[in-house]
Amino acid sequence: MRWFDSDFDYVQEMIDSWNKKRKKVRISCFILAALLIAAGILTVAFPIRIFAVIQYVAAAAMIIMGIYHLVSYGSMTYYFRDSMLLVTGILNILIGIMILFMPVALTVEVITFMLAFLLLFSGAQKLSFGSRLRYFRMQHTGFLTVGGVLDIILAVIFLLLPFTTALAMNYIIAAYLLLGGIVVLIEAISMKR
Question: What are the residue boundaries of the structural domains of the chain, listed by start?
Answer without folding.
Answer: 14-190
